[in-house]
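Example 3.2
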Amino acid sequence: MVDPKVLRDMSFFVDLSDDEIKVISKVISKKNYKTGEIIFKDNEDGSSLYVIKRGEVKACKAAPDGELMTLTMMKDGDIFGEMSFLDERPRSATIIAISNTEVYLIDKRDFEKLVDTNPRMVYKILKNIIFTIHTIVRGMNTRYIEMINYMWGRRR
């Protein structure tokens, strides 16, 4: 459990009422990572959602030669682990702290226990997760079109 006042200041929880903040704070835990520490690895099992309170992390994938390539960087207020949180499939990337980082974790099993008693709160949190995924997909689409235009020109 974390202090509900801490969650109130985080953008991910801005839509929640004070009562909803109190409920969700009971299933959230806090964890700190040092610079360079691996939070989780690609293909690991896991079903927790992470919300960054303070710090920065990078999402990486291994190239064919084994070198880790950075996909994106995330900072205060961003979330990660949302894909495994939703579908319970293995992690899709390695996440590494690039500064001392404080995160708040929501385990899927604990979260699911709130569905029957707090459906509106669960809806709000899932909406925020989907908005994050939607933003990522739109950004990827834009970068894909820019890459196509760069490689083949606009006339293709």
